[in-house]
Amino acid sequence: MPEEKMTPSCGNVFVDLDLPDAEELTVKSQLILSLQRLMKLHRLTQREVAARVGADQPTISKVLRGHLDLVTVDRLLAWLARLDQEVQITVRDRFSSHAKGDGPRGGISVFSGM
To answer: Residue 101 pLDDT > 60, yes or no?
Structure first.
């Protein structure tokens, strides 16, 4: 049996796949997970969600199944807001706390309180 080569993951499948928009795809997937948790918590159907957010059920279904190209981050944020979720965007100044080129770079992340 030939030896299999394994490459360790960095923890982000989109970065591992070297996709150019990995950060955006990560944010979209995290927002979709928040939507899925909300649906499960409140026992909402895809049809109910679609009616409340102004979309159709097939689109909701495709997005929940990972068709990230069908939705923008803005649209996902609007959907969550229409579902009575408090959505906050926080900008933290990391530029002035690190010398140029030193330390971690900026980034975008989603934290769900559900």
So the answer is: no
What is the percent of the chain with per-residue pLDDT over 70, rounded to a whole number?
86
Q: Is the pTM of this model over 0.85?
A: no
Sign of CA dihedral 74, 109, 22, 37: negative
Distance CA 90, CA 69 (A): 25
First to last CA, the chain: 46
What are the structural domains, with CATH classification, of the chain?
21-114 (1.10.260.40)
